[in-house]
Write a structure and sequence with these properties.
By secondary structure, the protein is an alpha/beta fold. The chain is built from 21 helices and 13 strands.
Amino acid sequence: MSLQQQLTEILGDAFEAEGMDREFGEVVVSQRPELADYQCNGALAAAKSVGRQPREIAEAVARRVEAPKLIESIEIAGPGFLNVVVADASLARAVAAMEHSERLTVESVDDPRTVVVDYGGPNMSKALHVGHLRAAVIGESLKRIFRFLGYNTIGDIHIGDWGMPVGQLIVELQDREPDLAYFDPEYDTAVSGSYPAESPVTLDDLSEMYPVITKRCAEEPDTAERARQATFDLQNGRDGYLALWRHFHDVSVAEQRVDFGALDVEFDVWYGESTVHDRLAPMVRDLLASGVARESDGAVIIDVEQPDDKKEMPPLLLTRSDGSYLYSTTDLATIDMRVGDMDMNAGLYVVDARQALHFEQVFRAARTAGYASDETILEHIGFGTVNGTDGKPFKTREGGVLRLGDLIGLVTDGARERLDEARIAEEYPAEERDAIARQVGLAALKFGDLSNHRMSNYVFDLERFSSFEGKTGPYLQYSAVRIKSILRKADDAGLSPGALLAPTVHQERVLMLRLVRLQEVIYRAADLRGPNVIAEYAFEVATDFSRFYEHCHILSEEDSNRQASWLSLVEVTLRTLDLLLDLLGIEIPERM
RNA sequence: GCCCCCGUAGCUCAAUCGGAUAGAGCGACGGACUUCUAAUCCGUAGGUUGCACGUUCAAGUCGUGCCGGGGGUGCCA
């Protein structure tokens, strides 16, 4: 049990002894660190329901508190706040408990249910660009957070590979190379052999073709109609198109594996819309038969509006009037698959906030259809857009999109330049320098993203991402690296960590208090689905360490017991930073 | 038209499900490197939390109405 939980129990007991709900005993971190470590606001909340004065309640509760070892003092302040100061010895014990715990005393969940994190979501045929960064980075972090807490967590990339874009690309390729076998309706694999094993296009080709054909479809109605037809034919199993689709898919996935790999983003499964293609026709048929879906203007829809809706709620479109499927169809079928085959209890969809309505519709439909029960959590984890310094969606100076690989290159170069400036870096082997530059660049990129609240649109400023100073990923790495350096030197000198003593220095005590909050922070991040909670706390841990570091010179400390205690303290700090950064998908170099 | 998100220091952003005196970073100004890595630390300046009402012991946070920005609103994803 964390220190905060223990205090909450103690205060809860006290409220209960006074004849009030123990819920009022909830203890939170103090907002006034100069006054207290923790505080309880329950007396104010309880006042109205029990008809007593807040201060009078606070005084009565304080008298009931029994915890001579844990609490140094408990005082009433202001209108009725209960300010709790933790005893130094118990604070040290709490940190010591972290030291001896593999999980830094963070408890696992009692009920390890299956959580599917759907993130990344790249369209087949498109090279990754900055727009994909947020989904990848936020999703990866959430996956790691839930996994660490003990959930059975599955990260699914969910590639967009079965919708209109594929039909559009087929049409564009046909217009460019009409003689390819894939387009010949008479082509008979039994007579002419199978389709070519070599892809007729590269991913660069597809990336170039995609904006061309989307523009054409917007301007040329008959081209759009052909794309719809191609989509329908593909979805209904036309051999040539399927063969072509396979090529598009393979060249796309090959490059996406490289791009996501470069980001250290790892998916457990590489499913996509196409994964459920066999389920689509039977699903629509069954939903029509059961009356869940109905025909409307030639299309098949599911009505999802509810009586108490305040907003317009258009029906979910299951098929177009030509019978082809949309991403609504595949998303719905995917829920059925995840619940049925993957035992999903919770699905977290880390997708651009602009798709909020779509997911609302799909989730409602899934419940109406019985694919998801009321117990199944389905959540759209939306996030804001990445803008340039002009406030508009990020573009390069030339006006094009910045590819993810190029972006990683830019921040890596920036990190390498910084390394060149540092004297101590000269002796590093070239390979290590490259590895450090990459780790530091990625840290800048990821922390820069994750430290923002996911819902807010944020400004992507390359200057800021390359500065590596202040509240940045590299700052956190740097703090951890300095600890590693201390521990190495201590080891060389034959010094080893020892029993944690009660803090004697202000900066030491502040650091300890920070560390023992770890469990609450991680659970809060999970509850809010907000990696920025982790990012903020990690920065505070690093800052507290830096202050301690400036103030207390560990290796020259003359009191060997205190020195050993400090070594333990910084070791716990390092492990904490390591965990937090790992939850953000950031690695720590050995030195930098 | 209707709905959703956002609006906080010069700039970029936080703010522990309603708590005390709204915090960081950058930028500005002034300090600290013969000491465990200065990618650091210390200090100063900087605010009517878009506006107005309301709810209550207490509002950046909740409600209503405006203003401004972004997005969505059945055959794109």
